[in-house]
Amino acid sequence: MANDTYVLFSYTIQDKFGTKTQTVLPAYVDSSVITGANLKSQWVTGGTDIDNVIDGQIIGGKISLVLPPDGGWKSSPESTSFTERTAVFNFKNPTTKYKYGIKVPSLDEGTLSNGKIDLTNTAIAALISLLTTAFTHGEYVNPGLYALQALTDAFLAARKYRKQLDRSTYEVE
């Protein structure tokens, strides 16, 4: 067994007053053999054991895979990176009238043209194609679980990350 992937099994528990909290069970699994069905089964098993020792109600949860960055990605931020320069890509589908936005922080300046997102940029077009094309055993979806089918619009938004920015730029004399 070669455990190589960190997994978090999370359970949301609610008391009689409606107050919600979470409990998290960390695990280490072998990514070469684990399946989604295996993870779900283990999550249910853990939930059963938790349910047996609490008087609150488990109302849901999630399984998160915690992965390290890929070796082919940037090893450090570029000098022009700025988290608050955020792109929002809105997608639609024929099932619902609502748009669903995917936010991408720290958008590369090279993907802009005249202050707007250049939808003809090769990297931008590849991202849009990724999000609207089914992949092996899945597809990208909105919160209603409907596939993202077409880009409606894209815009730059100034998302504020002030608390993090204050902490990272704080200097003492």
Summarize this structure briefly.
The chain has helices spanning 36-51, 122-132, 162-169, and strands at residues 5-14, 20-29, 57-66, 85-93, 96-104, 112-113, 116-117, 150-158. It is of the alpha+beta class. It has a three-stranded antiparallel β-sheet, with helices on one face. The protein has a three-stranded antiparallel β-sheet with strand order 5-4-8, with no helix packed on it. A two-stranded antiparallel ribbon has the order 6-7.
Question: How would you characterize this protein structure?
Answer:
- The chain has 173 residues and is of the alpha+beta class.
- It has helices spanning 36-51, 122-132, 162-169; strands at residues 5-14, 20-29, 57-66, 85-93, 96-104, 112-113, 116-117, 150-158.
- It has two domains: 5-66; 85-169, no CATH class.
- Strand 1 (5-14) and strand 2 form a beta hairpin.
- It is globular.
Strand order of the largest sheet: 2-1-3
**How large a portion of the residues is in β-strands, by DSSP E?**
35-45%
Kindly report the average pLDDT value. 88
- Low-pLDDT ranges: none
- The number of domains is 2
Which structural class do the helices and strands define? Answer: alpha+beta
Radius of gyration: 21 Å
- Describe the sheet with the most strands: 3 strands, antiparallel
Number of helices: 3
Q: Which sequence of SSEs, written as H and E, runs from N to C?
A: EEHEEEEEHEH
Shape: globular
Helix content: 10-25%
Question: End-to-end span in angstroms?
Answer: 53 Å
- Write down how many β-strands occur, each being a DSSP E stretch of 2 or more residues: 8
